[in-house]
């Protein structure tokens, strides 16, 4: 950008973060940060100060930097923030001692165990079930001509999918949906009703793991569920405590649920706002092609992805990120949504281009904590968007964009509701 040396324009004011306007469209503020303060110490709504990292190159480096720990014990928690940092796991152990809150060597051991049980083949076998769920949910509202796509579609799909994957019996899955609903509606922090839901989930998971261990057949049956696979892996020499198993189930639910809700919600919304891109996708699906669906889902993740900020990291020693010194104990938040719009890395970053190639977005993170569920998320995202656009081809927003509300949490980015209308079918 060239700056006129004569007129000395006043510097653009520092944008206000974490307001409702910001939630509706954080991208202009992120562009400002990338340009003027790419690694900026910022006071969060909870009162905690953290470094926000907004450029792609810095973000990628920070995500893979072993000096940035995931363990909240490394946080140099200021006295005024005690107990209200909003950092999951800072003050409670148990379910919070999971992959996203631990470092090697524990992380390596636990990730290896779950990777064994959660293979790409296992995910691929799951495709017919995801399609069945997708169609079943659309069947429920297709004849009505209107729906709230968050509550009736994006929300139930991933929770039932993860429950099936884990091996939660169908008759218990609605309880899970309700607990998860409570956690998502109230921002995910372990407080109040959320704490009660987490407690119920913990009790339920502990009992389920116990029962599955007692009933585990000697040989794995084809299509064995993930909890049984985890118990089997742990029983074969690698140690996994019951608490670790419960925490693993919890992280799969918690990491795989709201994210996928937002992929379907934000993705559908972006397509509704870009009719020419949506038309391209619909035409290619009608021609029986899936290539545009595949690049398209990646582009939707880049353009307006479900995870706005990567989860917390804490400096274990002084280090420099993007020329900025960060002290031991400082929290660092990598802003994936900002990095994925960095013009240094992406051509026309604010343009939605479903044909985009070389799209190494950070929507699934990077480094050793790279999203474990990415194959499942892709499967669900592709199935949901393709089925929706094929079965309800004239889908449109039922309200003005300005009337939509975004959920206000720090880490995730997603809509509260997505009301649509379409020509009734079936
Ligand atoms: C980690 C994004 C779906 C399980 C992550 C991370 C991101 C991410 C950004 C890294 C966070 C960090 O480094 O701070 C997404 C997105 C999804 C999605 C955008 C949907 C579109 C899923 C699903 C599952 C899942 C469906 C599983 C059922 C996990 C797990 C981790 C993780 C277990 C932690 C991995 C580790 O720490 O080693 N995800 N995720 N995710 N994700 Fe996903």
Automatic annotation (TrEMBL):
The keyword Oxidoreductase applies. It comes from the Bacteria. Residues 67-90 are annotated as: Disordered. SUPFAM superfamilies: Cytochrome P450. The keyword Heme applies. Keywords: Heme, Iron, Metal-binding, Monooxygenase, Oxidoreductase. It holds the Pfam family p450. InterPro entries: Cyt_P450 (IPR001128), Cyt_P450_B (IPR002397), Cyt_P450_sf (IPR036396). GO terms for molecular function: heme binding; iron ion binding; monooxygenase activity; oxidoreductase activity, acting on paired donors, with incorporation or reduction of molecular oxygen. Belongs to the cytochrome P450 family. This is Cytochrome P450 hydroxylase. It comes from Streptomyces minutiscleroticus. The lineage of its organism: Bacteria, Bacillati, Actinomycetota, Actinomycetes, Kitasatosporales.
